[in-house]
Specification:
Blueprint lengths: L18 H11 L8 E3 L4 H12 L4 E5 L5 H6 L5 E6 L2 H9 L5 E5 L13 E7 L9 H4 E12 L6 H5 L11 H10 L5 E13 L2 H8 L5 H22 L5 E13 L1
Parallel strand pairs: 2-3, 2-5, 3-4, 5-6
Antiparallel strand pairs: 1-7, 6-8, 7-8
Length: 259
Amino acid sequence: MTTFIDPSLLSGWLRPHSLEWYKQLSKLQGEYEYSWQSTHTEPNGESVFDREVAQMVQNKKVLDVGCGHGGFANRYAPLAKEVIGLDATDRFIKMGKENRHPNVSFVVGNTKQGLPFAANTFDCAYIRKGPTSAYLYLPQVIKKGGEVLALHPGDESQKELPQLFPNLFPVATGTPVLEIIRQKIENHFMSSEIEVVKSTEYLHTPLDIIKRRCFGQKPEVLEQVKDANLEQITKVFEKEATEKGLAVTQVYYIVRAVV
């Protein structure tokens, strides 16, 4: 069996979704946007979540937790009374402020240290692939009866990639993300539920495999992986891919809670 280099052992690699990684991503891209190309079957977690948020925010004062560069805060702004985006990355917040709707504002803050808002400030909140640490503090800043919607990547997402590309992708075991979410929301909300939404993602090219694995890393890391493994990745891709691309499982957890 062909094995591939482990990118996490390369010099300059940062742990994905660490604060340092987010800061680097903001410098590299300016926006939190995926660098690879893919398509998804419907329904998928992102589209389901986006439709529900659009309904929830109607004429409400809304908190966007982990807002990144503010793309979704601005998307929902025409529907909402007011949207406040919170993110720990200064550069993302700066980008958001430069391109904001009149009823949108942005605040720098790390949810691990709490939420920098007064009690009962918001009618509702959403977390779109943002931090789970906010769950402990949301009941304090959302009015009683207010809704919280959240979207988190699921534990079994892209489970095929470690099988097809050993070492290149880490092997995941168990359901640690799901357990963390359950612990964070337990006993903090009047009611809550977690829905598991599964779909198929088609990665379009062999290079998209590398871009997914090296998302947010320095260009030299991506180039090292590309130089070492692109030929072997291409062989696997051509063997396994359909006309739509290489099919992998996409899993999202959608959290629906009421304060």
